[in-house]
Write a structure and sequence with these properties.
CATH class: Alpha Beta
Helix content: 25-40%
Order of helices and strands: EHEHEEHEEHHH
Number of strands: 6
Strand order of the largest sheet: 1-4-3-2
Structural class: alpha+beta
Mean pLDDT: 87
Number of domains: 1
Number of helices: 6
Distance between the termini: 20 Å
Low-confidence stretches: 144-154
Largest sheet: 4 strands, mixed
Oligomer: single chain
Radius of gyration: 16 Å
């Protein structure tokens, strides 16, 4: 939420990964290097099999595939599984933001509001986030300069 100008504590990172096999393998390799493992009792390679991912979405109502780090148990990376939250849907109006010296694509505020509205059951923190994001959007504030001052650039 910091990347959108909303200052609140969060310990997870929601990420949309381009779904090509080579990129997914790089993602898994990076998670392995960072010592992140799947939260569910499934191998990380599950995300390489689109049929298995579809089953998780349809049968388990999974929106994300979660990874966590046993050395830092409160940190989590959630990879979106659904098409409407996927990379191909979010990239069209994403903006570029500098984070720790790297340029990353960040979904637009409007897409994030849409994503939070789809959470079922919707949580109080999602409702609060939606309200804050709508306020920023109405005021048409640019948060890019604020991001630079919030995040350490090394």
């Amino acid at each position: 939420m910091l990347l959108y100008g909303v200052k609140r504590m969060t310990l997870d990172l929601d990420i949309a990964v381009a779904p090509d096999q080579a990129n997914l393998r790089r993602f898994i390799s990076t998670l392995h290097e960072l010592k992140f493992i799947p939260r569910a009792p499934l191998p990380a390679e599950t995300i390489l099999n689109s049929a298995l991912v579809e089953r998780l979405v349809e049968e388990k109502n999974a929106l994300v595939f979660s990874f966590w780090c046993p050395d830092a148990p409160y940190t989590q990376i959630d990879m979106f599984l659904t098409l409407e939250n996927g990379f191909d849907h979010l990239v069209s109006d994403a903006r570029r933001v500098s984070v720790s010296g790297r340029t990353v694509l960040v979904a637009s505020r409007l897409k994030l509001i849409e994503m939070k509205c789809r959470v079922k059951p919707i949580r109080d923190k999602d409702l609060s986030d939606i309200t804050a994001l709508q306020l920023i959007e109405r005021n048409n504030r640019s948060v890019d300069s604020e991001v630079e001052s919030i995040l350490p650039l090394t």
